[in-house]
Write a structure and sequence with these properties.
The protein is built from twelve helices and no strands. Helix content is 77%, strand content 0%. The protein has helices spanning 5-36, 39-63, 72-96, 101-108, 110-117, 123-139, 151-171, 179-202, 209-233, 239-246, 249-261, 267-296. The chain has one domain (14-293). The model is unreliable at 294-305 (pLDDT under 50).
Length: 305
Amino acid sequence: MPLTVAERRWDLTRIAAVAAVIGSIVSLCVGTSFAKTLFESIGAQGVTGMRITIAAILLCAVWRPWRSSWTAADLRALALFGAILGAMNLMFYMALRTVPLGVTIAIEFSGPLAVALASSRRLVDIAWIALAVVGLGLLLPLGHGAVALDPTGVSFALGAAVCWALYIVLGSRMGHMHGGRAIALSMLFAALVALPFGVAEAGWKLVDPTLLGFGVVVAVLSSAIPYSLEIYALPRIPRQSFGVLLSLEPAVGSLAGLAILGERLSLVEWIAIVAIVTASVGAALGAARSDRNEAAAPAPGVPPA
């Protein structure tokens, strides 16, 4: 039976949303790779402070958060959310000083993976946890497979993972806010956290016109474009589809690091990344099935239809 006009329109909308998520991942990884090339000039903290501050200015100019009526509770929530966002970015970029991009993203993914599996009691989810632990075990400097990884860099990546988990938990409580304006104001609070570290490391180099030009490119590629594309995609595709697509980020990051930075990973590191990506995809699909089962279950005292 041929598709109706409405069905074709819905398919095109879903395709566009999927393309938006993939574009967001590619833009983020390419922007982060370019950001790493600035480390020699202004350091990891300088790059973080510059990137977040420029991104905050751009997002505020686009979304105009002052147009919303924020309550005191909203502002406190956004301030905490922004502080976590700033800390997450700082630790992520500090990890990038000595750890390849794809590996850093893979380690950081343990945060959202832990959140996805925290409330699960199913046997299959224990298998995903085990697979993720195997992947992390291959990456962490605990055995023969990861002796080349810097322990300090890995520690920063794990700290970013904790912040990402908190980011997800806190973000889930802000669904009543306007998405674009909330993330713009949160990014402003994140800049207040990250910029002092950047100034302490780079000083007046942060306002060098040439470096500022690169900073704008990095901020647009790694913040403004990804957040805007994700805000477009989230209402238009199922949550599990978004989670599955997002799970591709460590692999895309590894390819971007190879193409732009010349970061070659060992076979063990590739196996670890594949294990973590697979665990993330499995967790996302499992969470979707649990949500559907809960939605289909009858309310207490109400007979099933």
